[in-house]
């Protein structure tokens, strides 16, 4: 597991790093834009990738986008990445058959 993906930071630290209030961060979680883990005591834990994502979300919100638009953009981006991976796999399989 990469240090970027390990969820270890509490919401207060994430708030300081991003400039977002804890309420804003919780709101983005409610809107299914960010997915923190929970400790046994229920404390939210975030990763460095979560911090980067929160900063991206905040930038898009400042640009005037709504949360549902950001979620839709992310879904489209993920679908495009999946298509590229599938195509890459098909090309690799076809290339291997010829050699």
Your description of this structure?
With 99 residues, the protein is mainly α. The protein has one domain (11-98): Multidrug-efflux Transporter Regulator, Chain: A, Domain 2, CATH 1.10.1660. The protein is built from four helices and two strands, in the order H-H-E-E-H-H. It has a two-stranded antiparallel sheet. Strand 1 and strand 2 (44-45) form a beta hairpin. The longest helix has 32 residues, at 67-98.
Question: Would you kindly provide a brief summary of this structure?
Answer:
The chain is mainly alpha-helical and 99 residues long.
Write the layout of secondary structure elements.
Layout: H1 11-18, H2 22-30, E1 37-38, E2 44-45, H3 48-62, H4 67-98
Antiparallel strand pairs: 1-2
Features:
single chain, 99 residues, mainly alpha, Multidrug-efflux Transporter Regulator, Chain: A, Domain 2, 4 helices, 2 strands
Characterize the largest beta sheet: strand count, sense, and whether it forms a barrel: 2 strands, antiparallel
Helical residue percent band: 55-70%
Mean pLDDT: 91
CATH fold description: Multidrug-efflux Transporter Regulator, Chain: A, Domain 2
* CATH class designation: Mainly Alpha
The gross shape turns out to be extended
Give the low-confidence spans: none
- How many structural domains can be distinguished in the coordinates? 1
Strand/helix succession:
HHEEHH
Structural class: mainly alpha
Tally of DSSP β-strands? 2
């Amino acid at each position: 597991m990469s240090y970027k993906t390990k969820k270890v930071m509490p919401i207060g630290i994430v708030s300081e790093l991003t400039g977002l209030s804890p309420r804003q961060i919780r709101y983005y979680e409610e809107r299914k834009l960010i997915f923190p883990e929970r400790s046994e005591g229920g404390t939210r834990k975030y990763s460095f990738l979560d911090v980067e994502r929160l900063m991206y979300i905040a930038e898009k919100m400042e640009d005037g986008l709504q949360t549902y638009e950001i979620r839709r953009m992310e879904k489209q981006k993920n679908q495009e990445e999946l298509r590229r991976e599938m195509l890459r796999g098909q090309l690799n399989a076809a290339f291997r058959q010829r050699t």
